[in-house]
Prior knowledge:
- By secondary structure, the chain is an all-alpha fold.
- The chain has 2 domains: 29-88; 93-147.
- Helices cover 55% and strands 0% of the residues.
- The longest helix is centred in the C-terminal third of the chain and has 24 residues, at 100-123.
Amino acid sequence: xxxxxxxxxxxxxxxxxxxxxxxxxxxxxxxxxxxxxxxxxxxxxxxxxxxxxxxxxxxxxxxxxxxxxxxxxxxxxxxxxxxxxxxxxxxxxxxxxxxxxxxxxxxxxxxxxxxxxxxxxxxxxxxxxxxxxxxxxxxxxxxxxxxxxxxxxx
Length: 154
C-alpha cells in the first residue's frame, strides 16, 4: 500500500507552497497581466460603446469624454488579436515546420471559438455591431503566413 504522505527525507520548505506558486502551476505558459488588463478594458469599452448613450465630444463637457470608447475599443481588439496570434505562434521566432500542425490546430480552435461567440451574439438579434466573427476568420487567415519573416509580412 502506498502512502500519500511525502517521504521523511523531503525538506519541509518544499511542502509549503504559496498561493502565487500554486497559481503559476495552473497556467502554462504564464499569463501576461498587461495583455489580460488590455483585453478587459477592450471588453468594457465595447460594452460601453454599444450600451452607453454619450454626447458628442466637447472639451467643455467632461461627461462627453466617455465618448472615447467609440472606435477605440474595436481598434484595441484588433491589436490584441494580432498580439495573441504572435504569442500563440512563437513570439519573435519563426515556427519550425514540425510545430506547424499544432499551431494550425490552435489557430483554428481559437478562431472557431471566437467565431462561435460572435455568431451567437449576432443570432441573438442585438442591435450592436459584432466584430468577433471577423476576428475568428482572421485567426484562420493567419495560417498560410505562419512561416513568413516579419519583413515579408509588412
